[in-house]
Design a protein that fits this description.
about 325 residues, 3 domains, three-stranded mixed β-sheet, 13-stranded mixed β-sheet, 18 strands, Phage tail protein beta-alpha-beta fold, alpha+beta, Jelly Rolls, 9 helices
Length: about 325
Amino acid sequence: MTEQARREQAEIDASAWLARLSGESLVEQDGHAFEAWLAADPLNRPAYQRALADWQEFEVRADAVLEELKAVDRRRAMGARARWSGWIAGGGLVAAAAAALVILPTIPREAPAQTYQTARAQHQSVKLADGTTIDMDAETRLTVRMSGSRRQVALAGGQAIFNVVHDPARPFTVETGGREIRDVGTQFEVRNRGDGLTVTVAQGKVEVRPGASGVGQTYLLTPGERLAIGQGGVEAVRAVDPQETFSWRSGRLVYRNQPLQDVVADLNREFAQQIDIGDPALARIPITGVIVLDDPKAVATRLSLMLPVKAVPSAQGLTLIRK
């Protein structure tokens, strides 16, 4: 048997032993068999230790541990004399089983899904158990599922920056807009606001592939690249400054020839006081510049310096009309 085959067999046997030692019908023969298995191949003991370590991802099963401790007390009372029986009664083999139970449930399962949502004018930073951070823009909703083999985010809508702790053994994926974004690096942003999907990479690499529908191409994006997928399915990759894209996190919005209607839509997510456009023709005017998100009135004043518009009070907040 090759070393690779031995390793694979050791992993399989280790999982089986961990499940067996977690059972309640332990006898002296189990102990002898376990000792013999550990001594049979130098790969077995580290394989068993890895199995225990892997299972640390899962929650404590308190009820099972309490039952096991009660079983330990009962066995101690029996006063068995044989070496393995004494080890069982003293808590040795059963303690190993109890330790396994403390580490995980008998049947491994993924942690419950967690949903995070921001309201209008609200930002939120979420730190996941693996150290990954997610910075959520206003009006964003996402659900996180974590397990021992995967890390998955479903972005229902909105905009978020992902600073991912890379782990080749547990892929980090974001599913949104019919696409799957897979982390091959560390930092990227995903925006899905209903008018299309964009993925911007600041560090490392990100793979964007078709989702369950199978529609679209697969892209490997590198730092300074953005993939934009419009509502009509048009896909384009171009060079950008990621820090401009990420600037909303520090209270600034950067635009390059964006129509006023898109700018106002962004502003209305960032402020409780709303802005509307009184003249439809104004909605198409392009804007290039930086907008500081300090106060709606101050923002409207800056817009009036950049464009032929002025702001007047309205029932919702402010209305932009032609000067």
